[in-house]
Design goal:
The chain is about 60% helix and about 0% strand. Strands 1-2 form a two-stranded antiparallel sheet. The two termini are about 40 Å apart.
């Protein structure tokens, strides 16, 4: 009975986490109530993972998978609560199915009026009585699609995914098609993580993704396409050490889904010092991205980059003083220095990861580059950090989850109390990561450094003896 107590405790914490997430999402919580409830969900998540580490080994994976299914399913209990991005996904899929490039027309373009329905483009009465989540159009009409006057921003792998979901979905399912598809992707990430971590004997780490509140909220309920990028990224890092070309192709697919996985490239190159080894990854990445963009370039009259430059300006990445980006750097540097400082620091981190990273654990360097980018740029959208959550599950350095929590705080708290909340949240995250680094310092100068993958092994008598 004593041996089963951690299992029972973990199950009870999971039940509480599932119930709380269900109440938050199905109850359509807003404002301070959503922020407080989400913080509570993260606390239950942390407690459940801590208890899972004491669960007997044979019970870990069954409990982990059952919990993953329950937590993931809560995201299906309501229409998207905190984001309207999935409505753009549905529209892009519909536009492509009609034979039109999604990069050529904004949703408000009269040329596509024939594709409109009452779900994405509600009637005038609904538009008049609604106060939130609907973007106004001409003549009193409106749409659920955000930024309806601009072209799509999503790369080609994402657009293919939107088309595929549209083509396979029955009529009238509305938001459920994208949510259900996203739930399957999230569970696929869980399955892949179980395979990877089980080989190393640390299956509990998968719970850092599978039970994380960000997964049902951002990956499933809001159906963000980032979860597809996460699946491709985890697959790429899992194989790149042994199969560099395959890893490069998978990483190229991930980059062509959301761009953010480009930050993983230095990690994928960890310890690869020979030119042909580096090119074996970089060439497939570039070729895959180019091959995916090419059909859209040929079919589109406009730019396939869509609203990318406008988005960068809107978010304040081109002008540090315009918003909440570069928040930590702006505490110590003039605004004009923020962007150059990011370029300098990221170059140094990327080169360090590439040159000194462990080729057997490419996710460690990938987490360093991605997490550092988040701390420097302080993005305001919480779903971006789904990639960080998956990398933490691979690597086990749980303190980096504070970056994901900071992103959620920035997204939910800034509209309530102002940009100082994001600055404080990312500051706490930076402190947690520094504390984690300090406690994990490898003060073992007598141990040999990890062998680089393309270095020959030293066949000494001592090596053969220990083998």
């Amino acid at each position: 009975m004593i041996r089963n107590r951690p299992t029972v405790a973990a199950a009870l914490l999971l039940a509480a986490l599932t119930a709380l997430l269900g109440v938050l999402l199905h109850g359509n919580a807003r404002g301070s109530g959503l922020l407080a409830g989400y913080a509570g969900a993260w606390a239950l998540f942390a407690a459940a993972v801590a208890v899972l580490r004491r669960v007997p080994g044979r019970s870990v994976v069954p409990l982990l998978v059952a919990g993953a299914i329950a937590v993931t399913a809560t995201g299906l209990t309501a229409a998207p609560v905190t984001s309207t991005d999935s409505y753009r996904y549905a529209w892009d899929g519909r536009v492509q199915a009609s034979g039109v490039s999604p990069y050529d027309h904004a949703p408000d373009d009269p040329a596509l009026a024939g594709l409109r329905d009452e779900w994405l483009f509600p009637d005038a009465e609904t538009c008049a009585r609604s106060e939130t989540d609907l973007a106004p159009l001409d003549a009193g009409s409106c749409t659920r699609i955000n930024r309806p006057a601009v072209h799509t921003i999503y790369p080609p792998t994402a657009e293919v995914w939107f088309l595929l979901v549209h083509a396979l979905s029955p009529d009238g399912v509305r938001h459920k098609a994208l949510q259900t598809s996203a739930a399957l992707l999230a569970l696929a990430v869980t399955g892949l993580l179980v395979v990877i971590t089980r080989r190393r004997g640390d299956s509990w780490r998968t719970a850092l993704w599978a039970w994380c509140p960000a997964v049902p909220v951002e990956a499933v309920n809001n159906a963000h396409v980032d979860v597809l990028a996460v699946l491709l990224s985890v697959a790429a890092l899992a194989v790149v050490a042994r199969h560099r070309v395959a890893g490069g192709v998978l990483l190229g697919l991930a980059v062509a889904t959301k761009m953010l996985p480009a930050l993983l490239v230095p990690g994928a190159l960890s310890g690869a010092r020979r030119p042909h080894t580096v090119l074996a990854v970089l060439v497939p990445v570039a070729a895959t991205v180019g091959a995916l963009y090419l059909p859209y370039v040929l079919l589109s009259r406009g730019s396939v980059l869509g609203y990318l430059s406008g988005y960068a300006q809107e978010e304040g990445y081109d002008d540090a003083g315009a918003g909440g980006r570069y928040a930590l750097l702006r505490l110590v540097l003039p605004d004009a220095w923020a962007a150059p400082a990011v370029a300098l620091v990221m170059t140094a981190v990327a080169l360090t990861v590439w040159w000194r990273g462990d080729p057997e654990r490419p996710w460690r360097g990938a987490l360093a580059t991605t997490g550092t980018a988040f701390l420097l740029l302080t993005p305001g959208y919480s779903w971006y950090s789904l990639l960080v959550v998956a990398l933490v599950a691979l690597d086990g350095r749980w303190e980096w989850l504070s970056v994901a929590l900071a992103g959620a705080t920035a997204y939910l708290a800034v509209p309530l109390v102002g940009h100082w909340a994001a600055t404080a949240a990312y500051g706490v995250a930076a402190a947690a990561i520094c504390a984690g680094w300090w406690t994990r310092r490898p003060d073992r100068p007598g141990l040999p450094r990890p062998r680089l993958r393309d270095e020959p092994a030293a066949h000494t008598t001592e090596t053969r003896h220990h083998a």
